[in-house]
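User: hey, got a sec? need VOC family protein folded
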Amino acid sequence: MQITASALSLNVPDVAASADFVRRHFGFVEAMSADGFVSLSRPDAGFHLIYLRTGLESFQPAAAAGSADGLLVVFTVEDIDAEHDRFTAEGAPIITPLQTEPWGERFFQTADPNGVVYQLVQWVDAPQS
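Assistant: Yep! Here you go:
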């Protein structure tokens, strides 16, 4: 198998709200859209981020047409502190404050208007005990 492209597709009630959030705060750009659908990308992400309006009759399989509950969209960044400052200055909600886990994961989380959780992370040296 050769994979030629990747995408993450999320069902949300308000497609425009999620798309606007990732355009504003993450720098994604629209690749294509239609009624109830938008595909966004950025060259360094390695995948398209797709939002589908919840309840679309064309969604397959219908049994999987729930929301993004329990899903984290995670981006590794080079300077987590600068990104935290930027997100704060832009007024993005910080739902999990900046913290460092014992294994060296420094991260914070934000959420879009539909409740999709985005985690930004930087791997740092594990704190000394």
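Quick note: The mean pLDDT is 90. Let me know if you need anything else on VOC family protein.
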